[in-house]
């Protein structure tokens, strides 16, 4: 017994529906089945809107792609009941059937064959085979699908049909008159299978075919039909294709069949037969008999002469009406165990569409009981149905339109007005979109989709300037073509055989490229069904013209004062000659200064322009504005803009730009110099001739689409702002005969350079009090030399605006006359100390006021600090320093200084250190220190530590610091020191005998150290 198999059959012929372009484009899958589009197909929709703006420019806006996936529809049919078979005991009788998947997706069918109750008995063997060659019988090697009690499965693609043969073996003991029935069933869990038998056949049910054989001792005719599709020419040509049919009839019964009539009718909608001479190769084989008149025969020589010979006839169905072309034959007598066959070949129409099924079956009429007629039950027999399919041929043409040309007009017309496979445009402006119209025609015999492609500019087959972008549209250019078959390429969409579609190719030219051509790109249309089939056309452009734009100043925000001349530039700028600014405006620090402007499109195409401002231009690159400077563009109605709208040729646009001067004086200098023309040297631009340097304001307009641009120079003079600060007033205690040092910072907060001198005066100078103002002359950060002792050229270290520590020569700046001064520019500062000395005779409680004065502006301006110093024998000194803890691990990464040597990043930690020392001769009691969490910082919990002694400035403390570990940072230590954090305040209670809420005693010469950490926000 053959092994039953599960198998899947694949169709090989594709069909593509036609496409109609409307206001939106629908994308269909490449397969349209009996009930619609193939399952899983992505249906896409994209809309395109066209409109005009206020400047009469045309615009296009495309929607996103809308997508919906096709759901599966399940349909199938089974064809058909076979009730007229006769057979003999022990004979296997074959019943042909057709299973067709008429759904839109693949489906799997369960095939069963069952014995039927109510007849004489069961078949001895009941099987179902796949009739792969459609000849009505199972041939060696053909697949066993199912048998009685053992179902099988078949998987079919959409629109695929297969031939099945049920073979039923009659039991050897059967006698004439016995009947044997079977039922072939095809089912799917996804829906019903349609029984194509009228009225759903014997059982009236869907998905079943009933087969019946009656045992007879008379003649038993078995007929099979096979077909061969003859592809005469090339793969892509069906012009001479034919089908050859072979019909075989065998009498396997015990009796003779009389008056056997063979009727094989052709479908004249598919076969190109208008004369019997068109049917060729008619021949026969076998022992055919033509007898004289015989009473037992019941007939007299009919339709044959000297034995059987099938005849090409135009009355193939024997109804007496001409025009039924086919093959008809007659055999007077067909004895038992006799086999006859005949064959013929018929031509097909070469206009048949791909995928058309050619179905055919032969009708056999016989007088089995010799009663003189062929109308008794079982005397009409149909063969199996042969199925042949027209193969797909592929062809395409891509052509130019050869019409509608007009020089100087870019409208998609063919400017040479000649059909020569070259769509020609004579001229277009740089940045313009060139329109090319083409016609794509499907010359194949089936639906097809054609992939449309133009090589990238600069590649083989495309000499357009690199950067040219080709896109593909419908005939009117208002709906973009999309990838309807989802294979990654833009296409025409499904196109029926013989149909044509007009498309538009748009070539967006790059900005900045112009000149004479020719520029040519090859358009290729390729069949999606057969990628070896394609055709080409050329998109040609003769020349690209250069664009231009002109930017000029205006006297007001609603006024345009352009020159109206497309060949002139009203306010040109050339970095080689470095002309002065057109307009120079002035303003204070933080001011908002408007410049009024107008742009004129001097190009031959509509264009829009990006607006930008910078402070330098070297002929190629617009430099950025200085740090802190900002600009805002407004139209004449004060709406914020960044570009102009699209301007038609010759069109103008009024706008203004607000230059916002920084509020930081270091970024808004009263005297500014820079290399604004890119020659490598700083220059001073004095637009209003007031003696100081102004800020260059370069304003540029640059096309968004072409190489057109223009740039002009204006200037902004920032008004002077003098602002010097000195910080800070301080207090301290001192022992009689001792000294104390106060730290001060002198800073230039204005936008002008200042020449400064520093002095100090004691209020008790007459009682022996003195002072010394010290500056750093060694670069170690420690003031070491009195300001009053400096001589010309001495180095004085200070902080520049970028916080670098540098020196300058005292009183010897090359930009100023020699004198007693230091120079601080905007944002620069000088750290210095004021040291106060008390005479040893000063009684306890005496207070001196030191006035520290910085003098500038030629002595006309001063700033002061006052340091109050009180004589106290129990003197405490509190020093605060800081260090970075980048890893937040509680360990300082550097030495502690009053100003950290490193900068902290957000997320890093900072360690703050306090050291208090009793520098007096008497104990200090109830010592309490309060500190706070600084701004822009967050406290690190449980980071408070304290200990006895001076921790020094080293990263590692020189004393033991004990940590608080309770949740609220409030804990008693064994060493008697206490600390707590409440809100943003940290309080330390230090000294012997300290309590949780009260400080202790700090004896002379003793010290305590405290630290806590914060995290930079």
Can you give a write-up of this model?
The chain has 5 domains: 218-393, ntegrin, alpha v. Chain A, domain 4 (Immunoglobulin-like, Sandwich), CATH 2.60.40; 396-545, Immunoglobulins (Immunoglobulin-like), CATH 2.60.40.10; 549-718, Immunoglobulins (Immunoglobulin-like); 724-871, Immunoglobulin-like, CATH 2.60.40.10; 876-1016, Immunoglobulin-like, CATH 2.60.40. The strands form 16 sheets. The chain has a 6-stranded mixed β-sheet, with no helix packed on it. It has a 6-stranded mixed β-sheet with strand order 13-12-15-10-8-17, with no helix packed on it. It has 1017 residues and is mainly beta.
Describe the structure in brief:
This protein is an all-beta fold. The protein folds into five domains: 218-393, Immunoglobulin-like, CATH 2.60.40.1530; 396-545, Immunoglobulins (Immunoglobulin-like, Sandwich), CATH 2.60.40.10; 549-718, Immunoglobulins (Immunoglobulin-like, Sandwich); 724-871, Immunoglobulin-like, CATH 2.60.40.10; 876-1016, Immunoglobulin-like.
């Amino acid at each position: 017994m053959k092994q039953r198999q599960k198998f899947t059959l694949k169709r090989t012929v594709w069909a593509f529906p036609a496409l109609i372009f409307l206001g939106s484009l629908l994308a269909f899958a490449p397969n349209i089945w009996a009930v619609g589009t193939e399952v899983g197909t992505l249906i896409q929709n994209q809309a395109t809107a066209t409109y005009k703006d206020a400047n009469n420019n045309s615009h296009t806006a495309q929607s996103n792609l809308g997508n919906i996936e096709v759901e599966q529809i399940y349909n199938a049919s089974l064809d058909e009941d076979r009730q007229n078979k006769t057979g003999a005991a022990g004979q296997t009788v074959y019943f042909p059937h057709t299973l067709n998947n008429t759904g839109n997706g693949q489906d799997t069918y369960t095939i069963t064959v069952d014995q039927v109750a109510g007849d004489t008995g069961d078949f001895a063997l009941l099987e179902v085979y796949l009739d792969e060659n459609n000849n009505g019988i199972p041939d060696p090697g053909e697949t066993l699908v199912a048998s009685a009690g053992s179902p099988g499965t078949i998987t079919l693609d959409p629109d695929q049909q297969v031939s099945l043969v049920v073979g039923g073996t009659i039991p050897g003991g059967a006698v004439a008159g016995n009947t044997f029935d079977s039922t072939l069933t095809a089912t799917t869990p996804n829906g019903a299978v349609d029984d194509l038998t009228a009225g759903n056949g014997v059982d009236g049910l869907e998905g079943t075919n009933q087969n019946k054989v009656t045992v007879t001792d008379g003649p038993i005719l078995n007929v099979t039909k096979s077909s061969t599709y003859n592809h005469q020419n090339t793969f892509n040509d069906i012009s001479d294709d034919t089908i050859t049919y072979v019909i075989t009839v065998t009498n396997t019964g015990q009796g003779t069949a009389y008056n056997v009539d063979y009727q094989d009718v052709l479908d004249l909608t598919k076969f190109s037969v208008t004369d019997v001479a068109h049917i060729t190769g008619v021949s026969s084989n076998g022992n055919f008999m033509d007898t004289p008149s015989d009473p037992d025969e019941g007939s007299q020589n009919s339709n044959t002469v000297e034995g059987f010979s099938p005849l090409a006839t135009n009355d193939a169905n024997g109804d007496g009406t001409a025009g039924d072309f086919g093959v008809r034959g007659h055999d007077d007598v067909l004895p038992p165990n006799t086999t006859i066959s005949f064959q013929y070949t018929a031509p097909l129409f070469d206009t048949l569409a791909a995928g058309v099924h050619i179905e055919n079956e032969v009708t056999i009429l016989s007088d089995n009981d010799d009663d003189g007629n062929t109308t008794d039950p079982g005397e009409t027999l149909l063969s199996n149905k042969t199925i042949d399919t027209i193969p797909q041929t592929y062809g395409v043409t891509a052509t130019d339109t050869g019409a509608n040309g007009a020089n100087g007009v870019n409208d998609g017309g063919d400017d040479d007005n000649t059909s020569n496979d070259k769509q020609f445009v004579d001229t277009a402006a740089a940045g313009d979109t060139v329109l090319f119209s083409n016609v794509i025609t499907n010359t194949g015999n089936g639906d097809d989709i054609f992939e449309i492609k133009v090589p990238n500019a600069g590649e083989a087959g495309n000499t357009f300037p690199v950067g040219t972008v080709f896109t593909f549209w419908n005939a009117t250019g208002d709906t973009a073509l999309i990838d309807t078959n989802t294979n990654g390429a833009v296409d025409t969409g499904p196109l029926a055989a013989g149909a044509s579609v007009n498309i538009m190719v748009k070539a967006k030219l790059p900005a900045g490229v112009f000149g004479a051509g020719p520029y040519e790109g090859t358009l290729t249309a390729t069949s999606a069904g057969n990628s070896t089939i394609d055709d080409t056309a050329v998109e040609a452009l003769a020349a690209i013209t250069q664009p231009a734009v002109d930017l000029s100043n205006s006297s007001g925000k609603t006024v345009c004062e352009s020159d109206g001349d497309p060949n002139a530039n009203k306010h040109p700028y050339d970095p080689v000659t470095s002309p002065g600014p057109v307009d120079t405006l002035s303003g204070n620090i933080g001011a908002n200064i408007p410049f009024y402007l107008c742009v004129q499109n001097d190009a031959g195409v509509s264009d829009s322009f990006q607006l930008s401002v910078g402070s330098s231009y070297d002929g190629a690159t617009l430099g950025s504005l200085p740090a802190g400077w900002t600009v805002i563009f407004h139209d004449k109605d004060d709406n914020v803009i960044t570009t102009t709208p699209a301007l038609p040729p010759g069109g103008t646009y009024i706008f203004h730009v607000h230059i916002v001067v920084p509020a930081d004086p270091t970024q808004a200098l009263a005297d500014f110099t820079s290399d604004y023309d890119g020659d490598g040297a700083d220059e001073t631009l004095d637009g209003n001739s007031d003696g100081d340097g102004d800020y260059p304001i370069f304003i540029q307009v640059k096309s968004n689409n072409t190489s057109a641009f223009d740039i002009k120079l204006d200037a902004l003079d920032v008004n002077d702002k003098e602002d010097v600060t000195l910080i800070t007033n301080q207090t301290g205690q001192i022992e009689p005969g001792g000294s104390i040092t106060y730290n001060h910072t002198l800073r230039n907060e204005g936008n002008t350079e200042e020449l400064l001198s520093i002095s100090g005066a004691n209020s008790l100078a007459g009682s022996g009090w003195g002072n010394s103002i010290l500056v750093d002359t060694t670069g170690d950060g420690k003031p070491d030399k009195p300001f009053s002792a400096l001589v010309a050229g001495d180095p004085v270290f200070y902080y520049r605006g970028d916080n670098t520590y540098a020196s300058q020569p005292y009183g010897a700046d090359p930009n100023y006359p020699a004198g007693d001064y230091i120079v601080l520019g905007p944002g620069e500062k000088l750290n210095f100390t004021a040291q106060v000395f008390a005479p040893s005779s000063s009684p306890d409680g005496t207070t001196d006021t030191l006035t520290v004065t910085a003098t500038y502006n030629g002595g006309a301006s001063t700033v002061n600090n006052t340091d109050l110093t009180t004589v106290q024998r129990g003197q405490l000194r509190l020093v605060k320093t800081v260090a970075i803890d980048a890893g937040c691990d509680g360990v300082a990464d550097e030495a502690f200084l009053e100003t950290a040597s490193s900068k902290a990043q957000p997320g890093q930690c900072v360690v703050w250190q306090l050291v208090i020392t009793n520098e007096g001769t008497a104990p200090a009691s109830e010592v309490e220190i309060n500190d706070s969490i600084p701004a822009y910082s967050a406290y690190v919990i449980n980071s408070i530590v304290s200990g006895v002694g001076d921790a020094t400035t080293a990263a590692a403390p020189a004393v033991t610091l004990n940590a608080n570990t309770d949740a609220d940072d409030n804990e008693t230590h064994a060493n008697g020191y206490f600390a707590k954090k409440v809100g943003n305040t940290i309080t330390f209670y230090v000294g012997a005998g300290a309590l949780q809420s009260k400080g202790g005693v700090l004896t002379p010469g003793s010290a305590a150290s405290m630290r806590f950490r914060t995290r930079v926000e």
